[in-house]
Amino acid sequence: MRRRPAITTPRPATPPPPGPPLRDYAAGELARAITCLGWRGGRLHEGVHQARKSLRRARATLALGASALAPAARLVDHELRKLNRGLSSLRDAHALTGALALLAARNEDTNQAALLLRARNAAARERAVRARSERTGDPGMHARRVLLASLLGALRALPWEDIEVSEIQAALARSRARAEAAGLRALDRGKPDDWHRWRRRARRLSQQQRALGGHSADERRDKRLAVLLGETQDRSLVQEHCGRDSPFAAIDRVPLRALMDHELVHLRGRARRLLAARAEAAGPPSD
Prior knowledge:
The chain is mostly helical and 287 residues long. It contains 11 helices and no strands. The protein has 2 domains: 18-163; 164-280, Four Helix Bundle (Hemerythrin (Met), subunit A) (Up-down Bundle).
């Protein structure tokens, strides 16, 4: 009698470890930052803007595996943070000019058009001064790019294969909780620093979702909120430049501040409604 062959149940395929794709993503962002910092001439400011975006994305990705990657990751993150902060003056000058240019375009048929154009031109002159100073201090951003190349090598050498899915999920949950707490605080107190903190934490959450390739409805809402909070920060930046050391003409500072007040009321109202819609979509908390 012929024996029937034994039936073997195939073992489920082991999912690939989540760390290496995150390593490749973060490394790609640092490589992009090195490239963008090499942009010259009229592309200098946009290069700095894009490089800072990539540095923040790399840091957000590192935070997803902080426990497994520590302590070396903390050193890499510290240097990336310091480098990013060192570029903030140039970025602020560019953001100020860009925000005013956008507002001028949106209000070209209103009474504010001339005010916004004057402010935009003043901001552009200040931006040019910052750029000349930067070119003198670090021509071609060479020193920063060399440092970034070293950090890129260090980042690639981290033990990314040790990251577990559970750690990523916990890190994402912490980021969401921090963003939501910052949002409630900003809406309750309404101070500029609270709104800025909310913006930073919402952006970190959105960047981590981007690193993980998320495209859910919740993640799209989080992205919209992060973008909206970025717009509020740009308006606050204009307000901050309406003081004694302002690049704007003295006669323009009061009406410019009043216009930004109006803009902020509108944008913060939208943020409040977006957060409410996010909470409604999430449903009541489970018992």
